[in-house]
Amino acid sequence: MAKNHVLAIVLAGGEGKRLMPLTMDRAKPAVPFGGHYRLIDFSLSNMVNSGYMKIVVLTQYKSHSLDRHVTRTWYTSPLLGNFIAPVPAQQRRGPHWYLGSADAIYQSLNIVDDENPDYIVITGADNIYRMDFSQMVQHHIDSGLPATVAGIRQPIEVASALGVIEGKDGHVDRFVEKPQNPVGLEDDPTQVLASMGNYVFTTQDLIAALREDAEDPLSKHDMGGNIIPWFVERGMCGYYDFKDNNVPGSTDRDRDYWRDVGTLDAYYEANMDLISVHPVFNLYNRDWPTMTLLDGSLPPAKFVYGDEHSRMGHAVDSFVSPGVIISGGEVYHSIVSPNSYVHSWAQVTDSVIMHGVRVGRSSQVVKTILDKNVVVEEGAIVGVDLEHDLERGFTVTESGITVVPKGTIVTR
Description:
By secondary structure, the protein is an alpha/beta fold.
């Protein structure tokens, strides 16, 4: 099968309410991650590394920065007919925006008609993982079934929060949302197979399902909630076990790494995973790179002042991006994004610092997410007194992470 018979669709219209205030001014897939990436870079890198170069990104919610990022970063030459294109909601099927993920694809069937692919790969835009989708597509073809859903093994005790696949020999018998009495896997009763939100469809069968769903006034027009059950009820859905996916350069340790970063705590923990001494998700896998585009005008990171008895600019157990200046400040177990500045005698610990942040002299930032262009004034403290952080209007998560919105000035 030639790979140009596959159209990839990335669903990137999510509002991401649970990531507020990080999604106050941007779509969830555009949220920065790991220093200089954005969440969508992981999904697009998987598609490109899989050999799929005809990709549409369906956007809707506050999509300007996302559209700009995709257009500038993921530009491809049209010489071979390749494209990675953001497609905003256009009300093609009536005077309404996307009603759900299935409706987003239904409203974009003109693209499917134009490309006329044999198979369609559909994935979300806001999870952290590596996956070779060409292996899943081949599994789909070999199965002879019209629909295939990717599943990841999860502990049975968390099944009540997941969409669970029940079946055997690659065939889905039931698809249950948030089951209260889940059934463990035959080869491991302590686990269930949870949907990853990644799908492969034979094109004409998907079109038929979408058209029927569009006519159903009771449908929520959701891929996982309506379209997959539509195929399951007809005995037409298979599953693909993520543990069988072999990504070049991966190890047994990171084979089935997958993180949903839908909450602030999960987002923070996934960032911290990256900077552990032996991270499970290794960004240094050169055989399956996670790609993005940096501003080519950025100079290297700089660390200045080396007097250990007075002030020393240094970073330990951290990611420090291009354009960063650590001028006599200290950074521990943190991620510092491009164009940020840490001034003398400042301390940044266990934190995520986004683009263009200024951390003033003698200030202290602990277990905090500072969104873009935040200014921490000289002597200010954030992330230490959580009650004070709440009084100042900052978000504090259940696990005690302080989140400071974009452009905020943090005073003493």
